[in-house]
Specification:
Strand order of the largest sheet: 2-1-4-5-6-7
Number of helices: 11
CATH architecture of the largest domain: Up-down Bundle
Structural class: alpha/beta
Bound molecules: adenosine-5'-triphosphate, magnesium ion
Radius of gyration: 22 Å
Number of strands: 14
Number of domains: 2
Helix content: 40-55%
CATH class of the largest domain: Mainly Alpha
Oligomer: single chain
Distance between the termini: 24 Å
């Protein structure tokens, strides 16, 4: 798939600006703080329905405006599609697909797909398991609306359960009431677990391939998905564990087991990369995960997703830059950088 035009009105630093993209590689060149990342933020907004920088939609409205808009025109294999997102200071954002308003954000997902990568994504390797769960969720939500709704329901039930843990005064009363959430939590949890396990199984060979490619055959990456429970009787195990941990959870005020505690362990040549990998190795692993994400989305949707690369060239030597561009040559790629002097046939957008 391809984005052909992007129109930003009152979005971040843009008052009113239109961009055109070509098939293949597009390079956005500009000085620091000129609004390069803002462009990628707008495109990715249409892919996952939210910003990768803030959870507050209103923050993206230009400071001197009361409303903002992102409009994107896309070419897909079998049809073209237009997405419009309207931001307002006084109400929640609204979304139209081909001129028709959608009622739930879930309806937007899977309309257009893409992968975003920036040097900041190193946190995918280095930081808390949250980041790795987010990685799985972003892939699953944009390729499977059912998963998005499922995750939303799980989170809602978890919130309610945690609220009950915090607010119930008498432990005996809690014991008699909490079960109303437990069953739903275990049922949704089991389904999410199964989808994540399937994803990691599908992703693993692609990550391995990308890691070997980027390291010229030196580094083998392996992934292991780790959930609180395993196997066919996931829900049953979880229910039992919720009961066993009830007293502890009551004291702490939150639910300590479930898919909201899942983790992906990542190994490089058999050693855990989070604790033992060098900075360069961790960077390669993060990039390999993203390249694998590209392939898996293609696999799941039957279309080449967009590839959005924010400022990644500054951290790669010439050889790795070339490797990266070669690997991703089929996907429409939009890259931001402050300088571009490579000899190649690309569309340069100066801002
Ligand atoms: N809501 C907003 N309204 C107006 N301007 C904004 C808003 N949010 C951010 N900006 C401005 O946008 C600019 C940052 O844009 P962006 O992050 O896209 O820059 P960049 O070109 O990617 O820079 P760098 O090369 O440093 O990464 C800043 O100058 C910031 O003040
Ligand atoms: Mg930037």
């Amino acid at each position: 798939m391809q984005i052909s035009t992007l129109h930003l009105k009152g979005f971040r630093s843009y008052k009113d600006r239109k961009f055109e993209f070509k098939n293949g590689v597009n390079i956005i060149v500009g000085k620091n703080a000129q609004g390069k990342t803002n462009i990628l933020e707008a495109i990715f907004f249409m892919i996952i329905g939210k910003s990768f920088r803030t959870s507050k939609d209103k923050e993206v409205i230009n400071w001197t405006d009361d409303a903002g808009k992102i409009e994107g025109e896309f070419k897909k294999k079998y049809r073209d599609v237009k997405i419009e997102m309207f931001f307002s200071k006084i109400q929640a954002k609204a979304v139209k697909i081909d001129g028709i308003s959608i009622k739930k954000l879930g309806q937007l997902l899977s309309t257009v797909n893409g992968v975003f990568f920036s040097p900041d994504e190193l946190k995918l390797i280095k930081e808390s398991p949250d980041e790795r769960r987010r990685f799985m969720n972003i892939i699953l939500c944009q390729t499977d609306r059912k998963y998005y709704y499922l995750l939303g329901r799980y989170e809602k039930v978890l919130q309610n359960r945690n609220k009950l843990l915090k607010t119930t005064k008498d432990f005996n009363v809690l014991k008699q009431t909490i079960y109303i959430w437990d069953k739903a939590l275990c049922d949704y949890g089991k389904q999410i677990y199964a989808e994540r396990q399937k994803l990691i199984d599908q992703l693993s060979p692609y990550v391995e391939k990308a890691g070997l490619y980027l390291s010229s055959g030196k580094e083998t990456i392996t992934l292991k998905y780790r959930s609180s429970f395993e196997g066919d009787d996931y829900a049953l195990q979880m229910e039992k564990s919720l009961q066993e941990n009830l007293e502890k959870d009551y004291k702490r005020g939150f639910t300590s087991v479930g898919i909201h505690r899942d983790e992906i362990d990542i190994y490089l040549n058999g050693t855990e990369v989070k604790s033992f990998g060098s900075q360069g190795q961790q960077r390669t692993v993060a990039l390999a995960l993203k390249l694998a994400e590209l392939e898996i989305i293609k696999n799941r949707t039957g279309e080449e997703p967009l590839l959005l690369l924010d400022d990644v060239f500054s951290e790669l030597d010439e050889e790795r830059r070339k490797k990266l561009l070669k690997f991703t040559s089929k996907a429409q790629t939009i890259i931001t950088c402050t300088e571009f002097d490579m000899q190649s046939d690309v569309n340069i957008i100066k801002i």
